[in-house]
Design brief:
- It is a single chain.
- It contains 11 helices and 12 strands.
- The mean pLDDT is 89.
- Helix content is 37%, strand content 16%.
- The protein folds into 3 domains: 52 residues, lambda repressor-like DNA-binding domains (434 Repressor (Amino-terminal Domain), Orthogonal Bundle); 128 residues, Rossmann fold, CATH 3.40.50; 134 residues, Rossmann fold, CATH 3.40.50.2300.
- The strands form 2 sheets. Strands 2-1-3-4-5-11 form a 6-stranded parallel β-sheet, covered by helices on one side. The protein has a 6-stranded mixed β-sheet with strand order 7-6-8-9-10-12, sandwiched between helices.
- It is α/β, with parallel strands linked by helices.
- Helix 4 links the parallel strand 1 and strand 2.
- The relative contact order is 0.13.
């Protein structure tokens, strides 16, 4: 892809019908003999166009110009070039809401690519960051470093009680709807394929899964549980592969619930390779939801909140914070919904 054209002072001057000298003086914080209206107009255009060359003095920009950026930081192990579909959908909703409110969003990177020095660079004098959205669970040490620069932080899909705002889906509701759906189809033996083991998001879903089985009088069989470090397609495939040597057993599960959609896709591919049909032989359902579930074959039965709405709500939460809110934090839980696809069916 071609690199975007760099915005120059000449371009700004030409577009606004003013001299380059006036643009240069304004962007270097010189207010003398420049009308407030012209000063504001030049800054507005420069920030919107993405003009930020070496030496720009953001600390001299108008305050309302400097608070139009919403920053995004991803948890360790998740990077913008490798992120899974779920956070991609969250990002889409977040960016759309930010633009509607007159802000831009910027991905600063992931937790494991930032230290105190790099954070200090982002939050230097005159920075344009209104607040930060954290995608996923971060370490307390990193969160404390971030809170030294801004108290306006919203965590998505994780909670840091007493330290920042949070917004999550109703995980117990999602697991209950998935397990009840499978039980209604006649499934009595249901296995679990977990991912991102060690993160609170997995533990919440796993607990919800076991609790939902117990409420129906079903037992959780640890022999048919596979716990993986990541939550991608490859590990969904690997998790199912560890269980396929047991396929001939009479008590092998007739259904599996996976940590997320990516793992469901990987697990289905492994079952198909083992000459098992989904859902005729084994049903597979996922414990989260995004449009990806409807864009694969077979369409995945999944339950969760809409990640686009998660992103939109997170953006609104950051942008609408005021100094009056400082010191109090909100935990928002979005309703989950079951989306029935083609990957689950009646017990044969």
């Amino acid at each position: 892809m071609p690199k975007p054209k760099r915005v120059s002072q000449q371009t700004i001057a030409r577009e606004l019908g003013v001299s380059q000298a006036l643009v240069s003086l304004t962007l270097n914080g010189q207010r003398d003999r420049i009308s407030p209206e012209t000063y504001q107009r030049i800054w507005d255009f420069a920030m919107k166009a993405g003009y930020q060359p070496k030496g720009i003095k953001l600390e001299n920009s108008p305050n309302d110009t400097r608070t139009r950026q919403l920053a995004v930081i991803m948890r360790a192990g998740v990077h913008i070039h490798t992120q899974g579909s779920y956070f991609s959908h969250v990002m889409h909703g977040l960016n759309s809401a930010a633009l509607d409110l007159g802000y831009t969003s910027a991905v600063l990177g992931s937790e494991d690519t930032m230290d105190a020095a790099r954070l200090a660079q982002f939050f230097g004098p005159g920075h344009a960051i209104k607040g930060v959205v954290l995608l996923g669970q971060v370490e307390s040490k990193f969160l404390n470093l971030l809170l030294n620069h801004t108290r306006n932080v919203v965590a998505v899909s994780s909670r840091h009680a007493g330290f920042c705002h949070s917004i999550i889906g109703n995980e117990p509701e999602a697991l209950k709807s998935v397990v009840n759906h499978l039980h209604g189809l006649g499934h009595q033996r249901i296995g679990w394929l977990g991912g991102n083991v060690g993160l609170s998001r997995h533990e919440t879903r796993f607990i919800g899964f076991k609790s939902s089985l117990e409420n129906l009088g079903l037992k959780h069989d640890t022999r048919y549980t596979a716990l993986m470090r990541e939550g991608d397609r490859a590990e969904g495939s690997e998790a199912m592969m560890t269980l396929t040597p047991l396929l001939a057993r009479k008590d092998f599960p007739t259904a599996f619930v996976t940590y997320n959609i990516s793992m469901a896709i990987g697990a289905i591919r492994t079952l198909q390779h083992a000459q098992k049909h989904v859902p005729a032989d084994i049903s597979v359902a996922a414990a989260d939801y995004s449009e990806t579930a409807a864009n694969v074959t077979p369409r995945i039965t999944a339950a969760g909140c809409d990640p686009l709405e998660l992103g939109r709500r997170a953006a609104n939460m950051v942008i609408n914070q005021t100094d009056d809110n400082e010191g109090s934090f909100n935990d928002l839980v979005l309703a989950s919904r079951l989306h029935v696809g083609e990957s689950t069916g009646q017990v044969s």
